[in-house]
Amino acid sequence: MPSFRVGSIAGIPIKLGLSFLLVLPLFAWFIGNGIGQLLPLLNGIFDANLPAAELSAGNTPYVLGIVAAVGLYVGVVLHELGHSFVAMRYGYEIDSITLWFLGGIAQMAEMPEDWRQELAVAVAGPAVSVVLGLLSFVVFLVVPESLGGVRFVLAYLALLNVGLAAFNLLPGFPMDGGRVLRALLARTRTHAEATQLAAEVGKGFAFLLALVGLFSGSIVFIAIAFFIYMSASGEAQQAVTKAALEGVAISRVMTPADEIDALSPKASVADLIERMLTERHTGYPVLESGELVGMVTLTDAQKVREVERDAFRVEEVMTHELETIPEDADAMTALSTMQSAGVGRLPVVGLQGEFVGLVSRTDLMTALTILRSSGRDSGAETSRDSPRSPEESL
Ligand SMILES: [Zn+2]
């Protein structure tokens, strides 16, 4: 999703996603249009005595809508900065804070697995939102009643920031509440077990939310329920995968170089496709006098038109810039590297960069299935220093 950098706070780039830019005017319109219902609500909660006639006249609702919407998103950025500052205090790096239509995401290269740290980072965001809500309320109390518009925005932000904190504390991933729950569960369990349990709670909660949505006819509830359910499944899957693959040597799951029929860069694309058909592989390392010079996949071969496949050589279609993995890395690192590079297989290289084998996603998934059925994932030690879920949202 495209995003635009608009500045940085404390060295953290702040970006606006395209979906945010599209939804902000819509949101402002939504507030402006709903001012007829918002005014009695705010007057009821805060005993605000906001002048309905004055604030509903002409373009005033839409001006207030824009100011309130921008104010709310400023609150979201501060919420994310709350998470970010605490994470940075523990030495974690924040890549960026991006605003998109559902709120904000503080992107971190890795996240704390120590339960105290995760708890502190997760709680920091909602804590900031509560403080913002209270601050808005205090300022609302001191602003003179003649400034009806200002008081409307302040009352609105007081309500919404507290609402944002409450929404974020819902007990399901990717909400902060899901992380709080995992941190508390991880006090007496491994990170993977805590994640699985927290994910189960999240799924149960999503199910309840969906029921409420069905009975009340609220499409928003159903959408949020679906979102929580999918995130919980993803998070649990990732934790299980990580617990099983971490610490497993690549050499145990890779296909060693001497068992691989490598291709010569001079082979024709027609030969390549013929080999793919007979050997049922969709990717090959390309070796020239024992040295790895590239990788070629079915997608590369398909770029050449059928009539030209005899004329084209493998070296003309293969990838030269290779993502490789050192043989002393573990299987989880291989999986993360494949995911971030968007490739299905990685050449494994030795200390001098020599080609020692090939590891594919299928190899990793097969290893995962075997390791899981042998029960390795329960009680596996977790360590903090490998990449995990790269995102933490809202
Ligand atoms: Zn948050």
TrEMBL record:
Residue numbers annotated as active site: 80
Location of the CBS domain: 254-311, 318-378
GO process terms (BP): proteolysis
Location within or outside the cell: Cell membrane
Ranges of Basic and acidic residues composition bias in the record: 374-394
Gene Ontology molecular function, alphabetical: metal ion binding; metallopeptidase activity
Gene3D superfamilies found in the cross-reference section: CBS-domain (3.10.580.10)
Swiss-Prot/TrEMBL cofactor(s): Zn(2+)
GO cellular component terms given for this protein: plasma membrane
Cofactor remark from the record: Binds 1 zinc ion per subunit.
Entry binding sites for Zn(2+): 79, 83, 176
Keywords of the record: CBS domain, Cell membrane, Hydrolase, Membrane, Metal-binding, Metalloprotease, Protease, Repeat, Transmembrane, Transmembrane helix, Zinc
Location of region: Disordered: 373-394
TM region positions: 12-32, 60-78, 90-109, 121-143, 150-170, 205-229
Superkingdom of this protein's organism: Archaea
InterPro entries the record matches: CBS_dom, CBS_dom_sf, Peptidase_M50, UCP006404_Pept_M50_CBS
Topological type in the membrane: Multi-pass membrane protein
Family assignment from sequence similarity: Belongs to the peptidase M50B family.
Name assigned to this protein: Zinc metalloprotease
Organism: Halococcus hamelinensis 100A6
Source taxonomy: Archaea, Methanobacteriati, Methanobacteriota, Stenosarchaea group, Halobacteria
